[in-house]
Amino acid sequence: MSIQPTTTDDITLPLADVVECPVPETATVDVRETARGLAVDRNGETFVLECSRGQCVLTGVVGRDELPSTVPQWLAGVGAALELGEVRLAE
To answer: Whole-model pTM?
Structure first.
């Protein structure tokens, strides 16, 4: 897959390219770099990933008090598409 940045810091990925289940062709996720990793926007929510040394950790979702119980499949797909390695939950 070819990932094309929309700006120097942002990338828009077609969701259908990063998940193994049917999704509308128009569905996308926006990824932007942060000081400690990535912010991934989907459906009005921002998922915060801290990345270092080939590991990415889901540390929060903006506006939520708790983490999801598992890493969403689509977010794991984003990690694979960007060659970030496994995305795991913060402990």
So the answer is: 0.82
